[in-house]
Amino acid sequence: MSEVRNTPITVAMLGCGTVGGQVARLLHEQADDLTARIGRPIRLTGIAVRRPHRHPEIDPELLTTDAEALVDSGVDLIVEVIGGIEPARSLLLRALKSGTSVVTANKALLAEHGPELHAAADSSGADLYFEAAVAGAIPLLRPLRESLAGDRISRVMGIVNGTTNYVLSAMDASGSGYAETLDEAGRLGYAEADPTADVDGFDAAAKAAILASSAFHTRVRAEDVHREGISGLSAADVAAAQLLGRTVKLLAICERVVDQSGAESVSVRVHPAMIPRAHPLASVGGAFNAVFVEAEAAGQLMFYGQGAGGAQTASAVLGDVVAVARNRVAGGYGPRESAYARLPVRPMGETPTRYHVSLDVADRTGVLSQVALVFAEHDVSIAIVRQEGRSDEASLVLVTHTASDAALRSTVDKLAGLPAVREVVSVMRVEGEEA
Amino acid sequence: MSEVRNTPITVAMLGCGTVGGQVARLLHEQADDLTARIGRPIRLTGIAVRRPHRHPEIDPELLTTDAEALVDSGVDLIVEVIGGIEPARSLLLRALKSGTSVVTANKALLAEHGPELHAAADSSGADLYFEAAVAGAIPLLRPLRESLAGDRISRVMGIVNGTTNYVLSAMDASGSGYAETLDEAGRLGYAEADPTADVDGFDAAAKAAILASSAFHTRVRAEDVHREGISGLSAADVAAAQLLGRTVKLLAICERVVDQSGAESVSVRVHPAMIPRAHPLASVGGAFNAVFVEAEAAGQLMFYGQGAGGAQTASAVLGDVVAVARNRVAGGYGPRESAYARLPVRPMGETPTRYHVSLDVADRTGVLSQVALVFAEHDVSIAIVRQEGRSDEASLVLVTHTASDAALRSTVDKLAGLPAVREVVSVMRVEGEEA
């Protein structure tokens, strides 16, 4: 071996929590394999942490509290597993601008400040890899950006939050309500003490922004994503889905929308939706993640696996570390990420969706025609109607064809005000089937 | 734009059948997007075919019958979609040795002559990409080689042949026998006129060799793969699986095996097996493909999609074309493929497997103990026994724990010779559950 081939690729890590600890372990345990796969050894030169005494398992020589000095130390790449916006943002911008490549698992940072980070990487040519930011160990961004680079992606639809999927799977299995199921998920360790980021859809929205950016070559930020969480869901919603052979999932949906004039835009949204039980996403249970992709030539694809966990996320981080290291060995940086398409993000109100509406109505002549008239007035076409009487009350279930979300929402608002409608039992979007 | 940025990446194609026609179409239709994604335009400079008059849809200026001259024409990359061994092998070796990168969908060639092709690529540094060779449009080789490059893959198990999966799904649904189901598949276009390559497992074995090579950084060739097809399967086998809540699939299995001394080897095999109905692969129906991957840190992953079809395979080819083109724009070739591990391939007889055995036995005292003794004599431990009498005959179903395949086979041979055993109704391996 020549001297160059023995010169290590140097790596510094920012943060050493659940994921960072696993990255350090794997770098050590897999050292021989990584060297063989890369062509040169990898050396971890330092880890920036706030409280070094909390990391007794790490060689103290590696630990530092001076993250800036570590970023400036001239390493080949920085692994960022601090999470959150600051100081991660400033440290990564500093690294990228100086030509130091970055591997990060930080979905919030990418979803809020992706354009700034990509611009910094472009300015120096440094690599910016972030496979671990979406769906943990599931290879997803690399397939979207590379494997499907010659195809035209029309839709990415996935279950990308394990906590909410656990809660919804449990509600579907037990018939229990939302609050008690979330409590149980917390007791079992499937939900954080403060589950807001999960149940209100912030986590899924950040991932949707990253997925849409990669799929559609367009910069989409978290604030562009229409977001609804699961905290408003009731046992009645889940039961209503079951009655129609469907199940409720919190979906991140990124779609290419072509309007009548041929103009293209992207719709990026996170909301609960009913999907048919036969849909590949329906059987994704518990804390698993899965993402369904539709492309013009490739057809339907699905990627499935564990979306969270220290070791799982570390696997994705290490894959990126090897990629950056191989680029260094091959002589520089990898191909650039492109955002040439610059498609506008479509407002939710103008996005075509389908609704399921379940109503309790008075069981008397003319009610169905009153209800149907409200749909017709909003130009919303009805696909399925099921009416079932019980004494003087009837249950009326309607599923629409595709219409603008705003028209569907107005329809529901108007229905709620009809004297014959006693209660709007459940309103939910329908996905995963032909309109 | 500078002159360099407008200089096209030149592509020549060998063959223009179902896949090639779609590649040509997509290169044309997606030209603007491809240019933006790559940073330079792509130009198709020629297509070598045997009979130019059979391609009226292609610009005649592009067509040539002189494949060698096209290979020597100085293009940036060659797309090979001829299939088969010769002349593809000679043409690709010629291209790679001269530094021309290659994208191929040719699984038979890679599985039989992979080492030779990789050596030629290594000698010049040229890129050799072949995502389309396994599981059509499903991104699989790139995730194995890149996304999981920092992890340790323990198993790759998949449904990689659509024809046999269609036949097995139909047998499972209808209870029909093999021959009539294959006939029907042929009538519906799911099986070729000569289905040998599919039903005898040759196609799946070639894919298994390619998957094992990528997953374990070891060159595995088609001839190293233990291969059993589905033509010996009966309705009784499928019914026996159903009785235990299982279903029968033709699986390609690539496993890392560590023996008691700690020595590592790989087992690569294609055979029918029973898997639990709850296993993610069990619900993969019809002509779909899916591959299940287990890695130490990433845990369980699954990749699902359409494994065949012109457009689907072309999508994978185009993804590789973009990758090679981006490498050219970035200044050369991509990182090298590594086969450093050089793990030995374990003979099937020494591979740990589990068997399901269904017997018709005489219903008299002592039969179960005779049968159990045969297992014990071969050091095979029994996990499940179910006996059910009907008049003077009984049905006896046994599922073993893990043992060497040779010990299991000897056990079955010995059982078949026991006077009390009237018929061996079904023998099949069991996969996808803890032993």
UniProtKB/TrEMBL annotation, chains A, B:
GO terms for biological process: methionine biosynthetic process; threonine biosynthetic process. Its EC number is 1.1.1.3. Gene3D superfamilies: 3.30.70.260, Dihydrodipicolinate Reductase, domain 2 (3.30.360.10), NAD(P)-binding Rossmann-like Domain (3.40.50.720). L-homoserine binds at residue 192. The active site is at 207 (proton donor). NADP(+) binds at residues 14-21. Pfam families: ACT, Homoserine_dh, NAD_binding_3. PROSITE patterns: ACT, HOMOSER_DHGENASE, PROKAR_LIPOPROTEIN. It catalyses: L-homoserine + NAD(+) = L-aspartate 4-semialdehyde + NADH + H(+); L-homoserine + NADP(+) = L-aspartate 4-semialdehyde + NADPH + H(+). The keyword Oxidoreductase applies. It is an enzyme of class 1 (oxidoreductase). Its cofactor is a metal cation. It comes from the Bacteria. Residues 356-429 form the ACT domain. Keywords: Amino-acid biosynthesis, Methionine biosynthesis, NADP, Oxidoreductase, Sodium, Threonine biosynthesis. The keyword Amino-acid biosynthesis applies. Pathway: Amino-acid biosynthesis; L-methionine biosynthesis via de novo pathway; L-homoserine from L-aspartate: step 3/3; Amino-acid biosynthesis; L-threonine biosynthesis; L-threonine from L-aspartate: step 3/5. Belongs to the homoserine dehydrogenase family. This is Homoserine dehydrogenase. It comes from Actinoalloteichus hymeniacidonis. The lineage of its organism: Bacteria, Bacillati, Actinomycetota, Actinomycetes, Pseudonocardiales.
